[in-house]
Structures are given as C-alpha cells and as structure tokens.
Amino acid sequence: MEQIKIPEKFYACFEHAGRSITYAPGETVYLQGDSADCLYLVKRGRVRAFYVTRTGKELTYEIIEKGKIIGESSFLSGSVYPISMEAVNDVELIACDLNRLYGSMEESKELMRLVIQLLSRTCNHLTEQLRRITLYDRYQKIASFLLHETMFPDTDRGVTKRSIPYTHEELAISLGMNRVTVSRVLNEWKEQKVVSTSYGKIEILNRKYLEELIPRRVKNV
Question: Which residues are CB-contacts of 20 (< 8 A; sequence separation ≥ 6)?
Fold first, then answer.
C-alpha cells in the first residue's frame, strides 16, 4: 500500500495560496481552541498533533511528516482547532488561505482527490488511535503502531516494509506512552528476536509474532 501525501509538484499551488513559515523544535504551530483560519502543508520536518486534557495531561495523536496537511478544521467556517500542533524538529510549513487554494483544487482533479484522501486518512487514523487507547495493552499498542506504519513504505521518511526511523522517545511520544515502558517492551522483544533496534531505527524481525498480539476482531478493521 502506498502512503498518501501531497507530491512536490503541487507545492507551488500551496505557496501561491499562502506563505512559508519555519518553526524550531518544540515551537507551537497552533493550540487547541485557536481560530481555524489556515490549512498547513508540511514541507519539511515533523509536527506533533496532541490534545491537552483539563488536568494538563498531553495525549499525542500522531507525528505528521512531509507531504501531509494539518489544520483540516479550517474547511469549516468559524471553526477552531480541536488539537494542538508543535514542531518536533526543524519544520517548514506552508500556511494557506483556503479561499485561494480552492482555485487550484478546482483546476486539478488530482489535487482535489489527494486532499479528500488525506482528510479521510485523518478520520481513519483518529479511529485507530482511539482503538489503541481504549482496547490495547502496552504490547498491543506498540505492535499495532509498528505494523501499521510499515504497511506504507516511504523513502522520504525512511520507512520500509520492515523498519521505521524512530527512536524510543519518538515512539513513546507517538503512542502517548512513557519512554521507559516503551524501552522495556522493545528490549524484551529484542531478546526474543522479534525486533532489533539501533539509534533512530526499529526493525521488525518477526511480523507474525506482532500480528498475533492484535485481537482478531479488530486486526483488519
């Protein structure tokens, strides 16, 4: 399966409809509750999508990378962003005025299709995250993430059918888990020859083992 993203040939359409903005690691792009007045294209780097509860706990939904869009709530007039975004590393975004981007989308059926697919992907991803949070234990959460990510090889991201370019910390952030817990699970799996790890890379050695951890009733949903 191919990862859905906006190809570079369409970046000029977004640039025509907006402006490029750079962010340093940890810098806020927008906060939940802010007015949703821009759609963003990730041109370079990674951003973290997260929700802050009333008690101050942060729940990470996803690490979003090059070629993806964020700020989809801007499609709804008078809406606000339901989650927050911050830069994970050095990031460049293109902040777009939707009224100006619509012209390019009307001219290109391919661009229109890609944007709709990305919107659908966001809905599906949030559904999968909710499933992980409510149904899975720590082993199943990590197994589900590794299996899902490697379904979509992407040379730009360094993702293959067997590996993802994540540190233990980045994996923990993506899953909203404690880094120590993630490291314990991965180290246990290393001893069992299920995965191998090096700095910035996690490789699956026994995919069947991970697949068998996921409940059958939701494995292919």
Answer: 43, 92, 93, 94, 95
